[in-house]
Design a protein that fits this description.
The protein is α+β, with helices and mostly antiparallel strands. Helices cover 51% and strands 17% of the residues. The chain is elongated.
Length: 422
C-alpha cells in the first residue's frame, strides 16, 4: 500500500541484490486501498524467452525483471520507476543500457530504450523508466568518444584516397580499351573492372555525403540518401560476384560458345538487381536516421541508413548476401590459383618459378574479389577496435591494390606492341 512497505526483504546472493522503487503516483491512481504488487524475476537462458533477432548486446546475468501493480497498464509516469541492477565493474568498451521488451518492435519483438534513462554508479546501474513492464540491463559493446572520432576521421580520409585511385583506375581502363579495342576478351575484362571500381567510387561518394549531411537533413531526404548508400553497396557486392563468375567461365569452364551482348547483360545484372532489393526495402520503410552512440551515451555519428528497427534487412541483404558471394569467390580463386600455379605438363622446378610469378597477381585478384570486405565479419562486436581500424584502412586501400594490380598486369603488354594480349 502507499503507506506501508514490505514486512520482510527477500535477499539474494550478498552484494547482488537489486532494488526497485515505485513512485507514489502509481498508488494514488488506484481505485482500491490495497493492490497486489508482483515482481517477476526470470532467467531467460533457461526459459528461452525474450530473444531478439540478431541481438548484439548481452542481457546482464540473463535476468529480466517484470513489474505489475494490480491489473492496470501503467505508463507516462512523471515520477519514474527506478530499478537498480547490481553488478561488478564492467569490462572496458562495454556500456550498459536500460531497456524493456517491446512486442511491437521488428518481426517478433525486441528491446527498446524509449522512456528509460540509464545512470551508471559504482556498484550498479540505475534504470529510471516512465512505465511498468519487463526490464533488463543490456550490455552493449561500444566505442569511447575519442576512438569513434578517430575512426570516422580515418574513414573519411580513406574515402578521399579511395575516390582518387578509383578515378585513376577508370581512366587507365578507358585508355587500355581504346588501345586494345580489337581484343574483345580484354575489353570485356576491363569493362568488368570499370563497373566494379565505378560502384566503389559511387559508394565512397554516398558515404561522404551521408556523414556530412545526414545530421540536419529532412526525414524524406535521409530516406533517399540511405537508400542510395544501400544501393551502391549492393552494386559493389554484385559486381564482385560477377567478377568471380567471369573468372570461372574463363579459367574453369572455358566456354566455347559466344554470348551475345555479354557485357550488357552483366551490366543489367550488376546495376539492376540491387534496384529490386532496395525497392522492396524502401516500401517497408527500412531507411532513415541511424545513430552511433559512444560509451557515455553521446551520439557521435548520424547516418542515413537502415534504421535499428529493421536490422534484419541489413543482416539479410548485406551480411548474408556478401557471405554467399565471398564463399563462391573464394572457391573460384582457389581453383584458378591452383590451375595457374600447377598447369599440366609443368616440371617441378618450373612450377615453383611460376608460383612466384603468379603470387603477386593472385593477391591483387583476391582484393578484386572482395577479400578486404570479409573483415567486416570480424567487426560484429565493436569492442574489437583493432579489427575496426584494420577493416577501415584495408577497405580504403582496396582501390589502390586494384590500381597497382591492373598497371602491373597490363602496362608491360601495352608497351610491347609485339606481345599477344591473352
Amino acid at each position: 500500500s502507499p503507506s506501508q512497505g514490505p514486512m520482510m526483504l527477500n535477499m539474494t546472493e550478498k552484494g547482488k541484490a537489486g532494488k526497485i522503487r515505485l513512485p507514489k503516483e502509481i498508488f494514488r491512481s488506484l481505485s482500491s486501498q490495497t493492490e497486489r504488487v508482483v515482481v517477476t524475476v526470470l532467467n531467460i537462458q533457461q526459459l528461452g524467452m525474450f530473444e531478439e533477432l540478431n541481438q548484439t548486446g548481452q542481457v546482464l546475468d540473463n535476468t529480466v525483471v517484470g513489474i505489475t501493480v494490480g491489473e492496470m497498464s501503467i505508463s507516462g509516469l512523471q515520477d519514474p520507476v527506478q530499478l537498480t541492477f547490481a553488478h561488478r565493474q564492467l569490462a572496458h568498451g562495454i556500456t550498459p543500457q536500460c531497456v524493456f521488451w517491446d512486442p511491437t518492435k521488428g518481426m517478433a519483438g525486441g528491446w527498446s530504450s524509449s522512456g528509460c534513462v540509464t545512470q551508471t554508479e559504482d556498484k550498479g546501474t540505475v534504470c529510471s523508466c516512465d512505465h511498468l513492464t519487463f526490464f533488463t540491463l543490456l550490455l552493449n559493446p561500444a566505442l569511447d568518444k575519442s576512438t569513434a572520432q578517430a575512426l570516422m576521421a580515418v574513414a573519411t580520409a580513406g574515402c578521399g584516397v579511395a575516390m582518387a585511385f578509383s578515378i585513376f583506375t577508370i581512366a587507365f581502363c578507358i585508355f587500355l580499351r581504346r588501345r586494345f579495342r580489337s581484343k574483345e576478351t580484354l575489353c570485356t575484362n576491363l569493362g568488368l573492372h570499370m563497373n566494379l571500381v565505378g560502384s566503389l567510387l559511387l559508394l565512397n561518394l554516398a558515404f561522404l555525403l551521408n556523414s556530412g549531411l545526414s545530421g540536419g537533413t529532412q526525414p524524406a531526404t535521409c530516406k533517399v540518401l540511405g537508400g542510395l548508400t544501400h544501393y551502391y553497396l549492393l552494386c559493389c557486392f554484385t559486381w564482385m560476384a560477377l567478377e568471380g563468375c567471369h573468372l570461372y567461365l574463363l579459367f574453369i569452364k572455358v566456354l566455347g560458345s559466344y554470348i551475345h551482348h555479354y557485357l550488357v547483360k552483366l551490366c543489367l545484372m550488376g546495376w539492376g538487381f540491387p534496384i529490386l532489393v532496395v525497392g522492396v526495402a524502401g516500401v517497408i520503410g527500412s531507411y532513415g536516421e541511424y545513430c552511433i552512440q559512444t560509451t557515455d551515451h553521446q551520439v557521435t555519428v548520424h547516418l542515413c541508413w537502415i534504421t535499428s528497427k529493421y536490422l534484419l534487412v541489413h543482416y539479410i541483404t548485406n551480411c548474408r548476401y556478401f557471405g554467399l558471394i565471398f564463399l563462391f569467390n573464394t572457391v573460384v580463386f582457389v581453383l584458378v590459383t591452383q590451375k595457374s600455379c600447377c598447369p599440366q605438363g609443368t616440371g617441378r622446378g618450373q612450377g615453383k618459378r611460376k608460383t612466384w610469378k603468379v603470387a603477386p597477381g593472385a593477391m591483387g585478384l583476391f582484393c578484386l574479389l572482395g577479400a578486404t570486405w570479409a573483415l567486416a565479419f570480424l567487426t560484429h562486436s565493436t569492442s574489437s577496435v583493432f579489427m575496426l581500424f584494420l577493416f577501415t584502412i584495408l577497405n580504403s586501400l582496396q582501390r589502390i591494390f586494384i590500381f597497382i594490380w591492373l598497371v602491373t598486369l597490363y602496362y608491360p603488354k601495352m608497351m610491347d606492341k609485339t606481345t599477344t594480349v591473352s
